[in-house]
Structure formats: C-alpha cells, structure tokens
Write a structure and sequence with these properties.
11 strands, seven-stranded mixed sheet, mainly beta
C-alpha cells in the first residue's frame, strides 16, 4: 500500500520559515520523481518544486531563491524561507514513477502565512 504522509505545515508570519516533509512508503523511492504542489482557495493546483531520483531540481519562478526541495532515502522535504501571504495554500506531496508514470498523492498539509 502506497502512502505519502505530509507534515510540517502551520501558521507563520510573513518572512518566516517552514519545513515540509513527506514520508513515502510502499514505493521504490529511488525511481520516483518527487514533487510538491500547492492549491490556494479558488485557484488551480500548481507545481511548486520537483526533484528527480538523481537529484535534479526545478522550481516555479515565484519560489526560486526562497524554497529548496531535497530528498533522502524515503522522505522529500520542502524548506520554505521568506514566506509571503501568497504562499498560503494546501501543499501536496506527489510521487511519479519514472518507469511506469504511475502517480501518487499525499493528503495535503495547510500552510498559512499571515501579513
């Protein structure tokens, strides 16, 4: 059974930091590309950051220089610094099997940034 369990969300003031974690189980972690998406109220879900099994990373322009995605044996992280109110959203962990393109989602964690 595949599970992606996010943690680390919460309420923070603008300019603050949070670190999200996503613990994966039930998958061969090394062959999955891992991504963080977010969805704000009334908006479409957007890709925030991604990291391949080999460690290549990508970011949406709005978070470049502020967010850092990383991974270890079974967890993917999103370090979020200099948070802005517009970063407020539910953040979702996503895993994509690089061979089969199977997709898995976590349940989401709320991030709220107050001004």
């Amino acid at each position: 059974q595949v599970q992606l369990v996010e943690s680390g969300g919460g309420l923070v003031q603008a300019g603050g930091s949070l670190r999200l974690s996503c613990a994966a189980s039930g998958i061969i972690f090394s062959i999955h590309n891992m991504n963080w998406y977010r969805q704000a109220p009334g908006k479409q879900r957007e890709l925030v950051a991604g990291i391949t099994g080999g460690g290549s990373t990508k970011y949406v322009d709005s978070v470049k220089g502020r967010f850092t995605i990383s991974r270890d044996d079974a967890t993917v992280y999103l370090q979020m610094n200099s948070l802005k109110p517009e970063d407020t959203a539910v953040y979702y962990c996503n895993a994509v099997n690089s061979l089969t393109l199977g997709v898995y989602w976590g349940q989401g964690t709320q991030v709220t940034v107050s001004s």
